[in-house]
Amino acid sequence: MTQLFKFFLVFLKIGAFTFGGGLAMLPLIEREVVDKKEWMAREEFIDIIAVTQCMPGVIAANTAIYLGYHLFGFWGSVFGVLGAILPSFAIMIAAAEFFLTFRDNPVVQAVFMGIRPAIAVLIFSAAVRLSKAVDKTGYNILIALGSFALISLLGVHPIIVIVAAALLGIASKRRGMGNENTD
Amino acid sequence: MRILTELFYTFSKIGAFNFGGGYAILPLIEKEIVINSGWITPQDFIDLVALSQMTPGPISINSATFIGYRLAGFWGAAYGTVGLVFPAFFIVIFAATAIQRYRNSRMLDCAFIGIRPAVIGLITSATLSLGRTSIIDIKSVLIAGLTAVLVFKTKLNPVLIILVSGVVGGIIYTL
After folding, report:
1. What's the DSSP call for residue A176?
2. A180 to A49, A172, B114, B139: CA distances (angstroms)
3. Which one of A54, A79, A92, B97 is at 20 to 30 Å from A106 when CA atoms are compared?
4. What pTM did the predictor assign?
5. Which residue out of A51, A104, A151, A177 would a mutagenesis test of the B interface target, given it has the greatest number of B Cβ atoms within 10 Å?
6. From CA B19, how far away is CA B25, in angstroms rounded?
7. pLDDT digit string (tens) for B108-133?
8. Residue A49 CB partners (closer than 8 Å, separation 6+)
């Protein structure tokens, strides 16, 4: 079995068993890539995560692309990203097919009526969790409230809000207004 | 055929601006797919979020696959999902080459860390629209309250919380 195929399998395995999104995958990727396969040193892995977190997109896929390129070149990226997305892709097609087939069933409808409010609360709890991880500076509070108001009250496109927040972030960092990464 | 290219393009756009992790993508999907394209209804949107919470994998991949599949079957799912990771593929490879060349530059000190407070606003916006669609009568208020207690007062796994709310919904909405 070639190294490239092993690399593909690592991401396939991680993609298939990680609930809770991209960040939950990182410790698993680290264990496979650094501890088990010994493809790179831990410091190097941490540097790579710092970079891929800055990039747009899915952190697990980005990590697969970067590590793949770093270790095996272009095809490493291709195999890595395919491994990272294939399990979600396959499982979601099955879930979508099930949902679209049974959605008109009265019991399924009742169950989803119950799940929907729970989802709204769960998503809200993510915002609460994130707000605990960010410093309560005047600048941060203003940006958080401003983004919310622009999108929800004024209907501004979220892409504009994201780009504006990034530019403001760079400007405020230059002036040392304390918008530091708290990780 | 046209729908496949549109799926690819729309999800590339979403993927290119998907900063700040998982849930930060929800307002983008809502704006592009629910409001601008009208490809799925607000109910579909929240059910999609529910399904992706119950299945493994990142919510953005799950969303691209679900919406693509809903619109154009297997190939729709494939075009949407590949479109989503397409911009990142080139951006990350570019970064990988650039950083290997300029190891000591301040690349690591990235600009987009600055958007973290904005992500709080983005997720809160998503909550507001999801809440408007889902909390619509006294029963749903009760379920939201029950979920809030489970989420904020216990460390119960989100998948279990969704199962509990589904069972409660199944009972009180069929009574």
Report:
1. T
2. 17, 10, 8, 43
3. A92
4. 0.88
5. A151
6. 8
7. 456 566 788 899 999 999 999 999 99
8. A26, A63
CB contact under 8 A, B55 and A21: no
Which ranges in B17-137 belong to alpha helices (H)? 26-29, 42-54, 59-101, 116-134
- Chain A residue numbers with beta carbons less than 8 Å from the beta carbon of B57 are 15, 18, 85, 87-88, 91-92
Task: Compare all CA atoms of chain B with the CA of A165 and give the residue at the minimum distance.
Answer: B115
Residue A151 CA, chain-centre distance (Å), reads 21
Q: Which of B17, B46, B128 has the CB atom closest to A162's CB atom?
A: B17
Please count the helices (runs of H) and the strands (runs of E) in chain A: 8, 0
Average pLDDT, chain B: 89
Angle of the B59-101 helix axis to the B2-16 helix axis, nearest 10: 60
The rounded Cα B90 to chain-centroid distance in angstroms is 22
Q: How many CB atoms lie within 10 A of CB B105?
A: 10
Mean pLDDT across the stretch B18-33? 88
- pLDDT given for residue B46 in this prediction: 94
* Residue boundaries of the structural domains of chain B: 2-134, 135-175
Q: Pick from A39, A76, A58: which is nearest to A66 by CA?
A: A76
* Among candidates A61, A74, A117 on the partner chain, residue whose Cβ is nearest the Cβ of B85: A61
